[in-house]
Amino acid sequence: MTMRPKAMLIIFLVCAASFICGCASTVPKTSAEAILPEIDVVQVKENSEEALKVSQETKLDVDVINNKLTEVDNKLVTLSEDVSSVSVAKIEELENRLSLLVEAFKDLQAQVTALQNAPASARSATKPSGPATFSTAGTASILTTSTEYDAYQNALRVFNSRNYEKALGAFSDIIKQYPSGTYSDNSNYWSGECCYAMNDFAKAIVFFNKVFEFKNSSKADDAQLKLGMCYMKMGQTALAKTEFKKLIDRYPASEYVPRAQKFVSELK
């Protein structure tokens, strides 16, 4: 039997509609399965608790490290301050020792000059008739100048041993016994150094100022520098600058001028 074209079209449309409806019913199910997978709530909770625990432990470790860093930083600051303090004290001690060496050199130079200028009879008395030898006893009468010299050298040895209180007493005795002696100006200077080493800066200033009472003292520029340093230690910046400027103006050839200039530029 032959179907009419109209009937065939109707059957085709019905089949197409059924196919489309079937496809539509399966799509939402697949999409729902993709969008909402099965979730293990217990596992998620355990993972969260573990992550929280790790985070807390990490925070504790960071706090410990920060505390250690702070402790190390504080130790470095303390060490730096100690090193700075020791360095200043050591420099001052070395300067004093250098001054002692310079004095000893000048003293030896003066004694050699005195020996060279001594009368021929005095020099010949020290010459032995036998092989050439050196005898300190043979030249003692020329090289040893006085009891003042011996007392001064003894006081310097005590100072060099860092027994400043005893050294101050020794230098004071020299000043009393020989007020106008050869070593009175130096004894006043080293008395000031003893007081400075014992942090008695006010008393040190008194001794350093006494050095200027002696005309052409070799310790004048040393005393001038120490006056500025005393005032600086006492926190009297204006007076310290004044004393350092005096050193620059009065003793332009002094070895301490660069140091005084540095102090003046640094002091506010």
Please tell me about this protein's structure.
This protein is mostly helical. Helix content is 78%, strand content 0%. It has eleven helices and no strands. The termini are far apart.
What is the fold's blueprint, element by element?
Blueprint: H1 5-35, H2 41-117, H3 120-125, H4 140-143, H5 147-160, H6 164-177, H7 184-197, H8 201-210, H9 220-233, H10 237-250, H11 257-266
Helix pairs in contact: 5-6, 6-7, 7-8, 7-9, 8-9, 9-10, 10-11
Q: Quick recap of the structure?
A:
This protein is mostly helical. It contains eleven helices and no strands.
Rounded to an integer in angstroms, the radius of gyration calculated over CA atoms is 48 Å
Poorly predicted runs of 5 or more residues:
125-143
N→C terminal distance? 125 Å
- Binned, the helix content reads over 70%
Largest sheet: none
What is the typical, i.e. mean, pLDDT?
77
